[in-house]
């Protein structure tokens, strides 16, 4: 393939098909339903695929949920989760992630993954450690949504970020 002006193709840029697939996997709405108790929790703002420093929820077809955090754009982290689902190998420990393992064991695939941003962690007005605040907020959401195994896909919840 020859590109004008000796340009190199951008293999890291997602195709239109993957952009459409990512958008169709978003859980739309202004609330999320608690996976065990059934009540609605409001989502307080609108977020895009380019939003960073977020707490997010992943949902599988069987209703289990995973709560995660990322300081990068959410679209990058979702792409990584889909890759871990598609490439999970029970013989190769390097491919083991809680989400990949769950989807493999329950015979789901990456096309059935649904997700949404729960909250964006803002830079504190007086400064401080935004990454630590991100970890603390993630721990609160894991506790609130009760997503530690066996009820959810999170392997564990750490309180170290509060010390």
UniProtKB/TrEMBL annotation:
Compositionally biased spans, kind Polar residues: 1-24
Q: Which InterPro entries match?
A: GIY-YIG_endonuc_sf (IPR035901)
Residues annotated as region Disordered? 1-27
Q: Which residues cross the membrane?
A: none
Q: Where is the signal peptide?
A: none
**Protein's recorded name:** GIY-YIG domain-containing protein
Organism of origin is: Xenopus laevis (African clawed frog)
